[in-house]
Amino acid sequence: MSDPIETEIFDLLAKRDPGKSICPSEVAKIIAPDRWQREMGKVRAVATGLARQGRLVITKKGKPVNPEAFKGVIRLMLPESPPK
Fold it and tell me: Roughly how many angstroms between the first and final C-alpha of the chain, as a whole number?
């Protein structure tokens, strides 16, 4: 069974135009609308894991960031080409 956060990240990205990103809070608000702030750490952790695998790109101010060392406001997007 896949992680619901991972599923929601990829579902939201599939609905966006290519090259567009989502905010982690969008995912958290779908997963837990009444307590989405508490879910942000989990969403960021899942996104970090996906970025390490090359399945997701974490950006800040439109530029990719190192998934091992980022702070502050981020966005999530699909890589330009699928990892090999």
Answer: 23
